[in-house]
Amino acid sequence: MEIHWDDLGDIGEKVREEVEAKLRRLVAQHDDVLAIRIAGHASRHHRKGGREVHVTARAKGKEITASRAGVELGPALHDAVDAFARELRRLRERRGARPAQRAGGPQLLGLVDRVNRAEGYGFALTDDGTSVYFHRNALGGGLSIEQLEVGQRIALNVEPGTDGPQATVILPAAPDAPSP
What we know:
The chain is of the alpha+beta class. It has helices at about 15-25, 75-95, and strands at about 1-5, 35-40, 50-60, 60-70, 110-115, 120-125, 130-135, 155-160, 165-170.
């Protein structure tokens, strides 16, 4: 995740480091935030003070923005970051965001069994014979619903779904993965 600073030159290095550490902790367990921009400018709100801070993030299909104004830039920055954290939590609660995939990668191996390209879903068979539903959103590692072939070797993570097991992540199987 990248953090960009715009027009906040009068913020000290220590405050920047604290803010960046807080933002990195906020996004550490998720893979939904792609970049964050923190920008400051003169406020048009004469009652709220002379400076305004905007924190904007690109989060997979959505932009999150939080702004706060104040007489002093430091408190306005901290208030904007706190408001951003609340907005991000709300977005994750609405989406039911899951933590980012752990470093070990998918836990199961299987084969593509059926693909409905027009509807964007399919089924895989794990090596133990379990039929698992998947949606195009679970595909990663360069896989696309249009390119999947029946019998293709895949690696996947599975969780209980409303109508049976469903894949949360599907990646190409490693070249050295054992055959079924």
